[in-house]
Write a structure and sequence with these properties.
about 270 residues; mainly beta; Glucose Permease (Domain IIA); 2 domains; nine-stranded antiparallel β-sheet; four-stranded antiparallel β-sheet; about 45% strand; binds zinc ion
């Protein structure tokens, strides 16, 4: 194997995944290379890999999204086998990756989400799906609530990411970079993000399994926001973008689940 030349290009795109929690690497094998991945995240990670191969064949395809399960080591992405041992070969690849299974295109549309606040409370939905203030082309919900309001899990899941270090807000979309949030992975492959929580406002940790209706943190007014509120989205993660999804919430006494409408007040009595 030593006389072969190969090139490796690692191009890491903008990603949510901490680099030390996901690693793509190769090992030499009897007839070429094994491309492997370690995923130390609490949810699957998808990696779009474009191999540039000379004199090598990939057993598991090329230029596609490979999904690596949560908490796995040495996950086999593909075997690259040498076509002609007498000839030189090249191995290059570029990749970008992010949370989640990016091949998913169905989700549990009938799941009944809990309103993300305490029992006996009611809040205005100041902006709804595709709202004209800041939710253009985004299925996001804004619950108007004072700083420090207790927020509760809308669905069971596992906490995969938290940002709670920021403290300021501004009205420029650029400020979305300094949003605080809690991201939760659901059993149907979707994620929820609870956004604008106050500084150090998360009362859960990455890796925690949380139950629907569980207290998870305090709302705030941090990042891209015009005032205190909770911005809530459910989404599929794609390599770069998020595809936000409409969901139904239990309202009033919990017997009925509906899609929430802007400028209405909703109460959680369940
Ligand atoms: Zn919003």
């Amino acid at each position: 194997m030593r006389y072969f030349t190969f090139l490796l290009f690692f191009i890491f795109c903008n990603t949510l995944v901490a680099q030390d929690n996901f690693e793509l690497y190769y090992e030499e094998a009897e007839n070429g290379f094994r491309i492997l991945a370690d995923n130390n995240e609490f949810c699957p990670v998808s990696a779009k890999i474009d191999f540039r191969l000379e004199n090598l064949n990939s057993s598991n395809g090329n230029n596609k999204v490979f999904v690596i399960p949560a908490k796995t080591k040495k996950y086999l992405i593909t075997d690259l086998s040498v076509v002609d041992r007498k000839k030189a070969m090249k191995l290059g690849f570029s990749t970008s990756y992010n949370y989640g299974n990016h091949n998913l295109d169905t989700y549990d549309k009938n799941f009944k989400y809990y309103l993300p606040f305490g029992k006996g409370k009611s809040y205005w939905l100041s902006q709804g799906y595709n709202g004209s203030t800041s939710h253009q082309n985004e299925n996001a919900l804004d619950f108007k609530m004072d700083m420090g309001t207790k927020i509760y899990a809308a669905r069971d899941g596992i906490v995969v990411d938290i940002e709670e270090s920021f403290s300021k807000s501004c009205t420029n979309p650029e400020c979305a970079k300094s949003n605080n949030y809690i991201v939760v992975y659901h059993s149907d492959g979707t994620f929820a993000e609870y956004t604008h929580i106050r500084k150090n406002g998360a009362e859960v940790e990455v890796g925690d399994k949380i139950k629907i209706g569980q207290f998870i943190g305090y709302s705030g007014n941090v990042g891209w926001a015009t005032g205190p509120h909770l911005h809530f989205i459910v989404f599929y993660q794609r390599i770069k973008d998020r595809e936000t999804l409409k969901t139904k919430f239990l309202i009033d006494n919990g017997k009925k689940a509906i899609e929430l409408v802007e400028k209405e007040k909703y109460q959680r009595q369940y």
